[in-house]
Amino acid sequence: MTIPRVVLAAPSSSAGKTSIATGLIAALTDRGLTVSPHKVGPDYIDPGYHSLAAGRPGRNLDNWLVGEERIAPLFLHGARGADVAVVEGVMGLFDGASHPSVEPGFGSTAHVATQLRAPVVLVVDASAQARSVAAVVHGFATFDPTVRLGGVILNRVGSDRHEAILREALGSAGVPVLGAVRRIADLETPSRHLGLVPAAERSAEAVRTVRALGAVVGSSVDLDAVLRLARSAPDLDARPWDPAAEVERVGGRPVVAVAGGPAFTFGYAETAELLAAAGAEVVTVDPLRDSALPPGTAGLVVGGGFPEVHASALAANVGLRTAIAELAASGAPVAAECAGLLYLAGSLDGEPMCGVLDAQAAMHPRLTLGYRAAVAMTDSVLAPAGTRVRGHEFHRTRTSPGAGPSPAWQWSADGPEGFVQGGVHASYLHLNWAGSPQLASRFVAAAARARAGAPA
């Protein structure tokens, strides 16, 4: 299949990839093109801005979470019907997963670019360099001959004179300059303890920022040159991913609620697609605004997000907290990861939560971050004991205790983690269910049994 596509990478983190990628998506969309946005790695926040810019879901491409064999099919699935795809990279171009089970560079932007046979545009933070930019670009262009570096976008350029020096230096590097974007402090996206503030939390402000980024990139980058580069990508020898082919369909069409809204913004689009393919009627519940679960709810998925930022408002919604506690007590399946774990706890930073788990949660000064190879410790509504999955952790909170009598997973010598009780599975581990689609089949089957009044 042919999908014009380009990958935006950088020499390192903090070069402005997200701003440039979001602006490029917005600028191309403003031209009337249908743009498919993608993000390398597990990050949930950047795709939220991509989605605002494109008007369609931002999707992740992560070799660790879904397996190498699914990268091209998932890309084609997400890009179906698009005129062009923009893929934002992660960290530096060649920075990959740090895990003893994989080779250096596994899961890097370069890895995904070669899998997609896509040309790369290098976003270079030029704010503190002049002629040296040519050495940086030359090094990245020649480091790995399997990666095709098709252009450079200079970011945070200080002046016309600065731009002229940079362009002159790059004239002999053999990589065309596709644009030069000036330093604009007003367009910086606010950050906090886990990175950028999610677009869903900024609402109208985020929309204004995305529009402004589109205007800046549209006037500073040669969009025609970017499109020519994207259209030079060859055919991909793969078929689009099909969620229906990954799961066993369950009868009865049980209602499965998925938490959303500003407090629960971390989730992959493929999770809901797999649940629907497995036979569920998927509906959204916002724990900040909805006072009850959707009618007929037979299962609940509460993914990641920032409940610590909204703890008071979540606590104040007594009606929904009570409904969730009653659903869990009934034995219906409830899958909670990270933020969902905190929400099911007895309290979060002293604020009462759902009280489903006999655990208390609180902010912690240390960031926990990294890929995990986990093994299920207990039979649950997600997986039988012994099931192996790949996930990641990303949080600055702790629960006390860190595991229940029947723990969810184990991935290190530090001991088990998470909670399994009745139909509840709660853990800090983030999973992309596209990498373990059997989770959806098992969960929907449990929801169907709960709807029929049988044990989950």
TrEMBL record:
SUPFAM superfamilies: Class I glutamine amidotransferase-like, P-loop containing nucleoside triphosphate hydrolases
Active-site residues per Swiss-Prot or TrEMBL entry: 338 (nucleophile)
Keywords: ATP-binding, Cobalamin biosynthesis, Glutamine amidotransferase, Ligase, Magnesium, Nucleotide-binding
Swiss-Prot/TrEMBL GO biological process terms: cobalamin biosynthetic process
Gene3D superfamilies linked to this entry: 3.40.50.880, P-loop containing nucleotide triphosphate hydrolases
GO molecular function, one term: cobyrinic acid a,c-diamide synthase activity
Site (Increases nucleophilicity of active site Cys): 430
EC id: 6.3.5.9
Superkingdom of origin: Bacteria
Start and end residues of each CobQ/CobB/MinD/ParA nucleotide binding domain: 7-194
Keyword Nucleotide-binding among record annotations: yes
Cofactor list: Mg(2+)
UniProt keyword RNA-binding, yes or no: no
Annotated pathway: Cofactor biosynthesis; adenosylcobalamin biosynthesis; cob(II)yrinate a,c-diamide from precorrin-2 (aerobic route): step 9/10
Domain CobB/CobQ-like glutamine amidotransferase: 256-435
Catalyzed chemical reaction(s): hydrogenobyrinate + 2 L-glutamine + 2 ATP + 2 H2O = hydrogenobyrinate a,c-diamide + 2 L-glutamate + 2 ADP + 2 phosphate + 2 H(+)
Function, in words: Catalyzes the ATP-dependent amidation of the two carboxylate groups at positions a and c of hydrogenobyrinate, using either L-glutamine or ammonia as the nitrogen source.
Family: Belongs to the CobB/CbiA family.
Additional notes on this entry: The a and c carboxylates of hydrogenobyrinate are activated for nucleophilic attack via formation of a phosphorylated intermediate by ATP. CobB catalyzes first the amidation of the c-carboxylate, and then that of the a-carboxylate.
Domain writeup: Comprises of two domains. The C-terminal domain contains the binding site for glutamine and catalyzes the hydrolysis of this substrate to glutamate and ammonia. The N-terminal domain is anticipated to bind ATP and hydrogenobyrinate and catalyzes the ultimate synthesis of the diamide product. The ammonia produced via the glutaminase domain is probably translocated to the adjacent domain via a molecular tunnel, where it reacts with an activated intermediate.
Protein name per the record: Hydrogenobyrinate a,c-diamide synthase
Origin species: Klenkia brasiliensis
Gene that specifies this protein: cobB
